[in-house]
Amino acid sequence: MMKGKWLVLFFVVLLLAPGWGTAGEVSEKDFILDTTDDLVTICTVPDGDPLQEEAISFCMGFLVGAYHYHVAENAGPDGDPMVCPPDPPPPRAKILKMFMDWVKKHPEYKNDEAVETWFRFLVETYPCNP
């Protein structure tokens, strides 16, 4: 677990290197994503924030990457997916808004791991029918 956090921090530093010393609503430490609350901060960065582009890209990359990992892990005849979105899936921006709305209704998850909360939302929103 600790190795993963260091790897994320390494990539965040690489991503943000040109922006050292900028001030705004989002700071470099917010990109570590220890909790769901951290993910919400990154995914809802206000317009005009110096790190807005990086934050939104990081948010989408985190969510899409976690989902695609789930898809890859559950591919094939022995796969047992937890999430089954419609085909075609909704646009990413729509799913992000749905997730942010869902998180507001579930403040009990704000200190949980971001990926756990993301999958709670996905399983509730797009359950697989056996």
Question: How would you characterize the overall build of this protein?
Answer:
The chain has 130 residues and is mainly alpha-helical. The chain has one domain (2-125). It contains 5 helices and no strands. Helix 2 (36-43) packs across helix 5 (114-125). The relative contact order is 0.14.
Task: Write the topology of this structure.
Elements: H1 2-16, H2 36-43, H3 52-73, H4 92-105, H5 114-125
Helix pairs in contact: 2-5
What's the short version?
With 130 residues, the chain is mainly alpha-helical. It is built from five helices and no strands. It has one domain.
Secondary structural class: mainly alpha
Please tell me what the overall shape is.
Answer: globular
Low-confidence stretches: 1-24
Q: Using DSSP, what is the number of strands? A: 0
Number of helices: 5
Strand share of the residues? under 5%
Task: Report the end-to-end length measured between terminal Cα atoms.
Answer: 32 Å
Write down the secondary-structure element order. Answer: HHHHH
Q: How big is the Rg? A: 16 Å
Largest sheet, in brief, is: none
Number of domains: 1
Mean pLDDT score, rounded? 84
Which bin fits the share of residues in helices? 40-55%
